[in-house]
Amino acid sequence: MVKRIFNIALAYVGVVIGAGLSSGQDLMQYFVGFGKWGIIGTIVLGIISVIFGKIIITLGSYYRSNDHYEVLSQIAGPITNKILDIALIISCFVVGFVMIAGAGSNLNQQFGLPFWLGGLICALLVIFVSFLDFEKITNVLGIFTPLVFIMIMIMGAYTFIGRSFNFEELEAISSTISSPMPNVWISLLNYFALTAMTGVSMAFVLGGSILSFH
Question: What's the whole-model pTM score?
Answer without folding.
Answer: 0.78
